[in-house]
Write a sequence for this structure.
């Protein structure tokens, strides 16, 4: 084999396939990174909107189930805003306390008058913030902010005078 | 002659490899893109739906007075602007808009309103549409 033939053999038989393999490996890596990023973004988005949508639906369901005169009130306990829903269980009054603590919406259920221990609340969904408000005409509003900063509102028209 | 034939075969093989790999890559990249778009649309739909429900509930309790912060459109309807994260934005601005078209009908016991709620992106693309009716007995909020 002459020198030119050897050179061509090196290029065609070794360097070109090697370059091709390297190109494919780089493209595969880029695709893998792209897929990983897409998967991460999708997961984060699902987790984030899951928290606020679950919170909105949970609050709406709870309020509509207990939309009775005087059953719903908003109070402040130890610096924590608490949505209190009173219901009857076997003739005894029980209350559901809903509040935000440690980056999550939590629920605590027990007899009326029990001291609220925020640490013992059952976690419902991860959210950054949830402010409750109730207007004089019974229009309840919860302003929910997800950990990523997405705002969701839940407005429920309560029976006039509920909790006021 | 034989060398030329061998060269052509090799290059065709390389070309086929590149084409197959490019096609597979394009299909995968397209799938990633579609997945991201589907998640974004789902998120937009659920957040738009939640906001529409809140606006309708406000209307149910307070009537059109409760929606006074909306921008009245010339063709009828009330528009509410929202930012990227669905926080309220200045009228005419924002990324998303929820528009309510309310057709109230006076009935013997109150007002029966047929409402069409439409959520759109800034470019006019419709995200979600809801057609519903709200009955407000008597005057003012709930009876």
């Amino acid at each position: 084999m002459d020198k030119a033939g050897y050179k061509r053999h090196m290029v065609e038989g070794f360097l070109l396939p090697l370059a091709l393999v390297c190109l494919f490996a780089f493209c595969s890596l880029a695709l893998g990174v792209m897929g990983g990023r897409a998967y991460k973004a999708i997961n984060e988005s699902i987790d984030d909107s899951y928290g606020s949508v679950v919170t909105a639906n949970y609050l709406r369901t709870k309020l509509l189930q207990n939309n009775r005169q005087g059953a719903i009130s908003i109070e402040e306990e130890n610096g924590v805003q608490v949505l209190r829903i009173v219901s009857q269980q076997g003739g005894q009054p029980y209350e559901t306390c809903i509040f935000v603590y440690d980056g999550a919406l939590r629920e605590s259920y027990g007899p009326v008058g029990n001291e609220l221990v925020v640490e013992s609340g059952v976690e419902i969904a991860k959210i950054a913030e949830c402010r409750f408000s109730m207007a004089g005409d019974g229009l309840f509003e919860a302003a929910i902010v997800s950990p990523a900063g997405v705002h969701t509102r839940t407005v429920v028209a309560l029976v006039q005078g509920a909790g006021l | 002659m034989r060398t030329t034939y061998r060269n052509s075969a090799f290059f065709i093989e390389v070309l086929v490899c590149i084409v197959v790999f490019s096609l597979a890559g394009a299909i995968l990249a397209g799938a990633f893109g579609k997945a991201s778009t589907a998640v974004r649309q789902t998120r937009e739909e659920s957040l738009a739906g939640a906001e529409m429900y809140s606006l309708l509930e406000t209307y149910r309790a307070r009537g059109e007075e409760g929606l006074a912060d909306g921008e009245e459109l010339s063709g009828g309807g009330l528009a509410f602007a929202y930012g990227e994260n669905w926080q309220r934005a200045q009228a005419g601005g924002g990324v998303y808009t929820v528009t309510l078209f309310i057709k109230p009908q006076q009935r013997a016991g109150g007002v029966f309103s047929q409402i069409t709620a439409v959520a759109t992106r800034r470019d006019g693309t419709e995200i979600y549409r809801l057609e519903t009716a709200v009955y407000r007995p008597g005057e003012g909020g709930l009876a």
Summary: The longest helix of chain B spans residues 2-62. The longest strand of chain B covers residues 96-107.
